[in-house]
Design a protein that fits this description.
With 253 residues, the protein is an alpha/beta fold. The protein has a single domain, classed as Rossmann fold, CATH 3.40.50. It is 42% helix and 21% strand. It has an 8-stranded mixed sheet with strand order 1-2-4-3-5-6-7-8, sandwiched between helices. Strand 1 and strand 2 form a beta hairpin. This is Alpha/beta fold hydrolase. Pfam families: Abhydrolase_1. GO terms for molecular function: hydrolase activity. Residues 27-130 form the AB hydrolase-1 domain.
Amino acid sequence: MKDTPISIAGGARMRWIELPGHDPARVYVHGLGAMSAPYYTHIATHPRLAGHRSLLIDLLGFGLSDRPTAFAYTLEDHADALAEALTAAHATGAQMIAHSMGGAIAIVAAHRHPGLITRLVLADANLDPVPGPPRPGSSRIAAYTEEQFLSHGHRETAAHVGPHWWSTMRLAGPEALYRSAVHLARATTPTMRQMLLDLDIPRTFLHPATDTVSGADTLRAAGVRLVPIPAAGHNLMLDNPAAFVEATAAALT
């Protein structure tokens, strides 16, 4: 395991598990309430993907990383912290594989820090604000005020998400979980979708085969490859790892 202090977070440390190999580095980024090792170790070590230097990184507030309570946890803050960590790790020019909220952060990082990422594989990433009534995930958490979430919403979320998600979510700082969810539901200006359309790097969007991708024609016209993953829900790499590996390997070659 390696780590580095992040200046914009007052010296809080961002940590990752690193697998040795050749460059360019491959960086794996988890989603809201998750951490990278449980979601990606079987992917990064698969024979189709092994051999590259691989960083299974935990965002500030989550997993192995520190949980600074003074950090705002906006998508931009997360993106800048990720860029600072990769720069300190000499892992710029990376190929990035990022899931859900991690995908949103990866898009923002690529937009704000040209040259940081050379290829982008998004696993069912958030591209837009979350409208309407609360749904499982970020919008349900964001429906609380921060005071409500810290006093009782955190406990209610644990009961709602179930043991699998809670097994990693319980490691997140409550402030980090809440603020990240709020900013993910609000999205960015411009939106992550618009940033993705404007990026001039190879981009692949993996999604459950049963889902209809909003704005698919516009994404394709901008050069974003859309790849359906069969027999999978939102956690593509856990639900169908074989198909996830093949799609990711194709996107990175």
